[in-house]
Amino acid sequence: MARQKTTNTPDLSTLLTPQTPIMVAVEHAILRGHEWSHAAAPVAEQIAVRLAGVITMDLIHAGQRLLEKDISEVLHVSRAPVREALRILERERLVEFQARRGAIVTEPDAKDLRDIYVVRSALYTIFLRQLMEHRPADVDAVFEKHMPRIAKAAEQQDVDVYTLESFLLNIALLDLSENRLISDLLASISLRTLRYVRLGLAADPDRIATAIESWRALQRAVARRDNDKVLQMATNRINASRDAAVRAIVTPPPAPVSRKTASAPARSQPSKPSRKTSAPRA
Fold first, then answer.
1. What are the angstrom distances between the C-alpha of 135 and each of 102, 127, 235?
2. What is the phi/psi pair of residue 93, to 5°?
3. When you count CB atoms within 10 A of the terminal residue's CB, does the N or C end of the chain come out lower?
4. Close Cβ partners of 117 (under 8 Å, ≥ 6 residues apart)
């Protein structure tokens, strides 16, 4: 008898699709600090970073179940490394294990995201203050390298490239830190929120213009060695990212409009205010 399909499971063929630059960046972020390259990484880590990439691109959605058997069949591997890979994703807070359901892609609500950003803001303030006190020239160099790429993506209003380049700048700053605990925690938080940051920008691409200006203001403060302004601008950026991420999960995506509906003549009826419900935007 054929196995009955479990409900709310993703199309795992996405694991076999070509990787996007964001997916590659996510993989490198998870593997950062290890002495082996991606090609030489253990099988479990390779599976984990591939899953993390498709989760970040929202090809596997929040709330969906990840079954060991299905993943092992798609990737042609045994279930043991898949099980270990899911535990790696649990450590990164990309999945959680629930009784009788197994591994579930994390689905934070607005309060969860706000709590995450409280921690991110506190850690980032400590981290950035240390960098500005001990390695300001290196911080300058990171901005000089990455800002032209961010600016180009902003000019083109390319959401994926802008998200990628902003993420890479943050990871480059984390690599400067001598406090490994803080940098690892911040990297994990960045991975956890990246999909929602991306979806928030996709929902409102015009926000990129404001975001690039905040990057430039931060760069100017770094160049002036105005540490108080650096921390203020960084906090403002984190708060703006938090607000966009929260909007992404509480605002439902617009319903698709069929050609028939789109071409139909408008009716003379008073419009009704839209009602917002909780839905995913990262």
1. 44, 11, 20
2. 65, 25
3. N
4. 193, 238, 239, 241, 242, 245
Of 63, 119, 138, 137, give the one whose Cα is nearest residue 94. 63
Strands 95-98 and 65-66: unpaired
Q: Smallest Cα–Cα separation from 280: which of 159, 190, 197, 196?
A: 196
Any idea which residue has 């980032």 for tokens? Answer: 124
DSSP 74-131: HHT--HHHHHHHHHHHHHTTSEEEETTTEEEE----HHHHHHHHHHHHHHHHHHHHHH
Using alpha carbons only, give the angle 128, 131, 134 rounded to the nearest 5 degrees.
Answer: 150
Residues in the chain: 282
**Does 230 have pLDDT greater than 50?**
yes
Structure tokens at 66: 């990840």
Starting at the edge strand that comes first in sequence, how are the strands of the sheet with 65-66 ordered? 65-66, 102-105, 95-98
pTM: 0.78
Average pLDDT, the chain: 84
Please give the Cα distance from 71 to 50 (Å, whole number). Answer: 11
Residue with the two structure tokens 């990309």: 94
Pair type for strands 102-105 and 95-98: antiparallel
Written as six digits, the tokens of 106 are: 């994390």
pLDDT value for 133:
96
